[in-house]
From TrEMBL:
Keyword flag Transferase: yes
Lineage: Bacteria, Pseudomonadati, Pseudomonadota, Betaproteobacteria, Burkholderiales
Ligand binding (ATP): 8-13
InterPro entries, sorted: ATPase_NBD, Bacterial_glucokinase, Glucokinase
Keyword ATP-binding recorded: yes
Predominant place of localization: cytoplasm
Gene that encodes the chain: glk
Natural source organism: Telluria antibiotica
Protein name: Glucokinase
Length: 320
């Protein structure tokens, strides 16, 4: 009987799987495209079969944890940005598990934040001041959607992660260009959330409104990076500025004086454009509260699979 546990971090585009022996790091990490599987169990079965083919004993797994890009309330899970839906109890029974923990993906990522070191994060602008320990940490992450979370110190080295859906809070424009974006997207969708702009599809929406053409997010960022398209660079600049404003809102709301973290898959692809953007200026641009925000460090999460680390910690607690 193997001591491995199954870990998963499931977003709207990709599902990341790993095996873990209790007290050890992740092993055999693999990323599967969600679109290739009709049901979440199909993806789980495919990963386990491939892991077994690579020589891992997977038939005795009894405990698993899934971080998923969706609210988790009760037994039924229906993904917002993908078609998968399932009963937690039914999935646990179908997989033959004693424990199946399912949590919001950004709550899992937030749980990992206090444990990131210099290899897992990169500072983005701001004052070169000492980090204040044991203070709330905020988290925002544009990917297929927009994740928002935070983690609060609970004493004795313990942390409590927040599970929410702040990415769906209403978008508030700061400039006339952003008012134009709001007006155009309001005509399309009615309610315009921050996620409508701060996500892969959001980058495409900004470009569609500002440049009048449809381009995939990957093409927009690539053309902005190589300098071949001024309109794409303007789109990326607008995206980063809006992200700064929304991140500042989250930091103010949570009192995240320990630091504000940027996760998700979009920002790392922007490379030097993000560092050169108005992100930090807009993060601090809250009028009388500018000095308060100026002392909050902002970090880009660079660890490849931080949510797997976080969901493993939550599984530790659940199986004690």
């Amino acid at each position: 009987m193997t001591a491995f546990r199954l870990l998963a971090d499931i977003g709207g585009t990709n599902a990341r799987f790993a095996l873990q022996a209790p007290g050890d790091g992740c092993a055999d990490i693999e990323v599967l495209a969600c679109r290739d599987y009709e049901h979440v169990k199909d993806a789980i079965d495919a990963y386990l079969a491939r892991a077994a083919a690579r020589g891992h004993a997977t038939d005795g797994i009894r405990h698993a944890a899934i971080a998923i890009a969706n609210p988790v309330e009760g037994d039924m899970v229906s993904m917002t940005n993908h078609h998968w839906h399932f009963s937690i109890v039914a999935l646990r029974e179908a997989c033959g598990l004693a424990t199946l923990l399912v949590v919001n993906d950004f709550a899992a990522l937030a749980q990992a934040l206090p444990h990131l070191d210099a290899r897992g994060r990169e500072r983005i602008g701001g004052l070169d001041a000492a980090v204040v320990e044991e203070r709330p940490l905020g988290l925002i992450g544009p990917g297929t959607g927009l994740g928002v979370s935070g983690v609060m110190p609970a004493g004795g080295g313990r942390w409590i992660a927040l599970a929410g859906e702040g990415g769906h809070a209403s978008f508030a424009p700061v400039t006339r260009t952003e008012m134009r974006l709001l007006d155009a997207l309001w005509e399309e969708h009615g309610h315009v959330s921050a996620e409508r702009l701060l996500s892969g599809p959001g980058l495409e929406a900004i470009h569609r409104v500002l440049a009048g053409e449809r381009l995939a997010a990957a093409d927009i960022s690539a053309r902005a990076l190589d300098g071949s398209c001024a309109a794409c660079r303007a789109t990326v600049d607008a995206f980063c500025a809006i992200l700064g404003s929304v991140a500042g809102n989250v930091a103010l709301t949570l009192g995240a004086t320990g630091g504000m973290y940027i996760g998700g898959g979009v920002v790392p692809r922007l490379g030097p454009l993000f560092h050169a953007s108005a992100f930090r200026e807009r993060f601090e641009g809250k009028g009388r509260l500018q000095p308060y925000l100026a002392r909050i460090p902002t970090w880009l999460v660079t660890e490849p699979y931080p949510a797997l680390r976080g969901v493993a910690a939550l599984l530790d607690t659940a199986t004690r």
